[in-house]
């Protein structure tokens, strides 16, 4: 029965993640910022970038869930679960911002989740040090994407900017935590492959 309960809870979480249903434990950093008028092009661009960021958080949930499930030590299992709970704030914030912009989450969220879960499982099977190294490299690349978004978001879209900046700060912290726990460095070819896969995801998610 315990195993069945775990499966049901897991399926419930997957359905909520891919549907964009999430709750945050922290206040939305954009909560106190008033709305401003965005023209159609600005609104579409902000929505595209926030959809990309939301997909990134869908992927993060899948990665941390699978790494927690397949981690070798109970200590790391809990570390991955905690990181996933913190990332859920981002999922909720980006989903809320998309609704405010009159847009939607990615139609391919089930695909993004499934692919990321498989990648996380592979990383975990390589051992805890390599799994942590995967987290470090993932968070480094995510931070780079968020910095790029801050340079292209409409200057007056302060709500989206506040969310992205807080996400950037959190990703740096998660990467540093994984490094401190004994992450192994990732081989250059694998880092390049991760970057190429991220490029496909971000380009597609901007539109779909």
Name the helix and strand elements from N-terminus to C-terminus, one letter apiece.
HHHHHHH
Q: Roughly what percent helix?
A: over 70%
Distance between the termini: 39 Å
Q: Any low-confidence stretches, pLDDT <50, length ≥5?
A: none
Main structural class: mainly alpha
Counted by DSSP, the helix tally is: 7
> How is the biggest beta sheet arranged?
none
Q: Which percent band covers the strand fraction?
A: under 5%
Mean pLDDT: 85
Total strand segments: 0
Quick one: overall form? globular
Rg, Cα atoms, Å: 17 Å
Give structural attributes:
single chain; mainly alpha; 7 helices
Question: Describe it for me?
Answer:
The protein is mainly α and 208 residues long. Helix content is 77%, strand content 0%. It has seven helices and no strands. It has helices at 2-19, 40-70, 74-100, 109-125, 128-152, 158-180, 188-207. Helix 2 packs antiparallel against helix 5 (128-152), helix 3 (74-100) runs antiparallel to helix 6 and helix 5 packs antiparallel against helix 6 (158-180). The model has no long low-confidence stretch (mean pLDDT 85).
């Amino acid at each position: 029965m315990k195993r069945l309960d775990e499966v049901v809870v897991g399926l419930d979480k997957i359905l909520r993640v891919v549907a964009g249903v999430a709750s945050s434990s922290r206040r939305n950093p954009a909560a106190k910022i008033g709305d401003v008028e965005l023209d159609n092009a600005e609104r579409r661009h902000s929505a595209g970038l926030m959809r990309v960021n939301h997909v990134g958080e869908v992927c993060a949930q899948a990665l941390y869930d699978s790494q927690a499930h397949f981690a070798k030590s109970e200590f790391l299992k809990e570390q991955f679960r905690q990181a996933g709970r913190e990332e859920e704030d981002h999922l909720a914030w980006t989903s809320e911002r998309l609704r405010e912009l009159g847009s939607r989450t990615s139609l391919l969220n089930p695909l993004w989740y499934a692919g990321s879960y498989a990648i996380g499982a592979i990383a975990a099977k390589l051992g805890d040090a390599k799994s942590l190294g995967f987290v470090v490299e993932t968070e480094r690349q995510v931070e780079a994407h968020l910095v790029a978004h801050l340079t292209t978001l409409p200057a007056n879209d302060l709500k989206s900017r506040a969310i992205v900046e807080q996400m950037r700060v959190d990703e740096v912290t998660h990467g540093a935590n994984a490094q401190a726990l004994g992450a192994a460095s990732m081989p250059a070819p694998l880092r390049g492959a991760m970057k190429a896969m991220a490029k496909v995801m971000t380009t597609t998610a901007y539109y779909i």
